[in-house]
Amino acid sequence: MSSSSLTVVGQCTEGPYDDRLPMTPSVAVCILTLERPLGLRRALEGVAALDAGQAAVQVVVVDNDPAGSAAATVDALRSSVPFPIHHVVEPRRGIPYGRNRAVRMARQLGATHLAFVDDDEVPSPNWLRDHLAEVTRSGAAAVMGPVLSVFEEPPPAWVLEGRFFDRKRRPTGSSMHYGTTSNVLVVMDAFGDEEAPFAEWMGLSGGDDTHFFMRLILGGGRVVWCDEAVVSETVPASRVSVRWLLRRRYRHGNTLSLCLRDLRDSPYRRVRRLVGALERMVTGVLLAIVAIPRGRARMVAALQRAWFGAGQLSGLLGRRYDEYRVIHGG
């Protein structure tokens, strides 16, 4: 494990991004994919519809399948995407390997910015321009945006009632205390000169993006929110279940503890986190019992609290939960 700090990006003094900017941004739009041809097709079709303004855009598809199975989808859409597309294979299975390959490719292309979007997401037409406008206005090292869920099949009523797939939104310009790569634009200088800025020891657990942005923020870098830079995410039917929702919360707690253990560890913090984890586990179970006559949505929400605490506890003990051994929506 490594807890080295990242280079902090200096504050930008330019005004809002528009066609008059003296320096043309060069953006590598990076999509990591593994055996999701339909999702990748949708993502590339969304990228093809982007209004990039004056930005020079290149698309990087990092294929995590050693067989390079995404090549067929990329080749089929190459002529309809108005930006150069680069298909590269990262044979080592795991999200951090793919993300690090994307960073290295963006450097080779001379990009000033790197944008991540998942292979089950579709960016809105103004997504890139909105991200660039906010990163220029704020001088931040990175800008995150909202992810809106679109269900592959109509979900049960209890899922909608519990809003389990809704994500919190914030006013544009709000400072973030965490970050993810599901919808983000990063200034390339924020990666410093590290060969592998994303923690490869996290392998198939995910959370290496949380680890990266935590390091960036601890080192003085700023991450802000842009509420206009929207992507939509397809939710496959395999994720619309109590089992997946609980496992997801367990993984969130697990990777958060692993990140904090690596970056902000001390005996005092471990005891405090242990107490917090146990409290969530106990109160979550009790609230779930109370919620049984009040409907499944409330019961599942309470159990999520307990599972998050259990994940925190396992992470404190150094155990890693590899959620991404299973491919959903493939």
Keyword list:
alpha/beta; globular; 39% helix; 2 domains; seven-stranded mixed β-sheet; Spore Coat Polysaccharide Biosynthesis Protein SpsA, Chain A; 330 residues; 9 helices; three-stranded mixed β-sheet
Question: What's a quick, concise take on this entry?
Answer:
By secondary structure, the protein is an alpha/beta fold. The protein has helices at 37-48, 71-77, 95-108, 127-138, 157-162, 208-218, 242-263, 267-291, 296-316, and strands at 26-33, 56-63, 85-89, 113-117, 121-123, 142-144, 147-151, 183-187, 223-225, 231-235.
Question: Can you lay out the helices and strands and say which pair or pack?
Answer:
Elements: E1 26-33, H1 37-48, E2 56-63, H2 71-77, E3 85-89, H3 95-108, E4 113-117, E5 121-123, H4 127-138, E6 142-144, E7 147-151, H5 157-162, E8 183-187, H6 208-218, E9 223-225, E10 231-235, H7 242-263, H8 267-291, H9 296-316
Helix pairs in contact: 6-7, 7-9, 8-9
Summarize the structure in words:
The model is unreliable at 1-22 (pLDDT under 50). Strand 1 (26-33), helix 1 (37-48) and strand 2 (56-63) form a beta-alpha-beta unit. This protein is globular. The protein is α/β, with parallel strands linked by helices. The chain has helices at residues 37-48, 71-77, 95-108, 127-138, 157-162, 208-218, 242-263, 267-291, 296-316, and strands at 26-33, 56-63, 85-89, 113-117, 121-123, 142-144, 147-151, 183-187, 223-225, 231-235. Helix 6 packs parallel to helix 7 (242-263), helix 7 (242-263) runs parallel beside helix 9 and helix 8 runs antiparallel to helix 9. The longest helix has 25 residues, at 267-291. The chain has two domains: 26-239, Spore Coat Polysaccharide Biosynthesis Protein SpsA, Chain A, CATH 3.90.550.10; 242-322, no CATH class. The protein is built from nine helices and ten strands. The strands form two sheets. A seven-stranded mixed sheet has the order 3-2-1-4-8-6-9, with helices on both faces.
